[in-house]
Structure formats: structure tokens, C-alpha cells
Write a structure and sequence with these properties.
Largest sheet: 7 strands, mixed
Strand content: 25-35%
Low-confidence stretches: none
Number of strands: 9
Number of helices: 4
Shape: globular
Strand order of the largest sheet: 1-4-5-6-7-9-8
């Protein structure tokens, strides 16, 4: 794992960030908790390597007492960019006095579940059928996800940044 500069993304980095979203989600739109998000309109943190190349991005929104991580993508999983971005989002939430960092992943995304839980996040809710509903807003969401797992549910994970932690 190398060192990364993590900071708010700059306009000159938009093309590289958009390419990451295209690769991971098929474009700039993601659907979570029955909401279609255009990630180009959300605050974005970028992770840059020593050559100033974008190696990861995290988009988020503030929702009540929490910072919702809408997307987190690394150019090369396992290199540390995702960990650095999640830590920066947590610092952003703490600095803003928010009580939690939270996010949604799908029931098939075992790699993400492992990643987030190893970084202190806890599973707090299962929204049964949420991905089935999401297909109304984004029909290209597949019926079968990673590892041949039928794709149906959203899993909510959170990391408390307050005393309830």
C-alpha cells in the first residue's frame, strides 16, 4: 500500500473519475435506497498517487446526522486507495460533527462487505427487494451479481463517529 493524496476532486480530474464510474457502474448514475443519484453532482474526494494520477474516488452526500458514501471505487482494488478514501470521508464527517458514516451495498458484494467490516463498519439494516425496485430506475442492473448470487437486497452499513460508536 502506498501513500495517497486524498482531497476534494478538481475539475481537471473529472474525466478520470468519470471513467472509474463508467467501469464500475456503467455510467454516472447509481441507485440506492430508491433514489437515483447522478454522482457527477455530488461532493467527490479523489485519491491521487505520487504521479498525481487518479487512483480512486469517493462520492458522498450529507443526510441528517450522517455522511452517506454513495460511491467508492479504486482503480486497482487492494492498493490502499479505498481505505484512504474511507478514512478521509470519516474525517470529513467527524469534522462536520456528524454522528455516522453510512453506505449501501448489494447482497452479492461479498468483497465490499469484507472491506467495510474490516474497517469498523457494521451491518445495521437489510432492505429486502431494494435492488429489485432499483431496476425500475436503472433497468440495466443485472438479475445475477458477483459469484452467481441473485441480486435482490441492499445492505446498510455504518460506522459511528460519536459516543454511540
Amino acid at each position: 500500500m502506498g501513500g495517497f493524496e486524498v482531497r476534494p476532486a478538481r475539475p481537471a480530474e473529472r474525466t478520470a473519475i468519470d471513467a472509474l464510474h463508467e467501469r464500475e457502474w456503467g455510467g454516472p448514475y447509481v441507485v440506492a435506497h430508491d433514489t437515483r443519484h447522478d454522482v457527477r453532482t455530488l461532493p467527490t474526494l479523489g485519491a491521487l498517487d505520487a504521479t498525481a494520477a487518479v487512483v480512486g474516488a469517493l462520492t458522498y452526500r450529507v443526510d441528517g446526522d450522517g455522511l452517506e458514501v454513495v460511491t467508492l471505487v479504486a482503480a486497482a482494488p487492494g492498493g490502499g486507495a479505498g481505505t484512504a478514501l474511507l478514512a478521509a470521508a470519516t474525517a470529513t464527517a467527524t469534522g462536520a460533527g456528524l454522528a455516522r458514516v453510512w453506505l449501501i451495498t448489494s447482497n452479492d458484494n461479498l468483497r465490499a462487505l469484507r472491506f467495510y467490516q474490516r474497517r469498523g463498519m457494521r451491518l445495521v439494516h437489510v432492505d429486502r427487494g431494494a435492488v429489485d425496485r432499483a431496476r425500475r430506475l436503472k433497468p440495466e442492473i443485472p438479475l445475477v451479481g458477483e459469484d452467481g448470487i441473485p441480486l435482490h437486497d441492499e445492505l446498510v452499513l455504518e460506522l459511528r463517529t460519536d459516543a454511540e460508536g
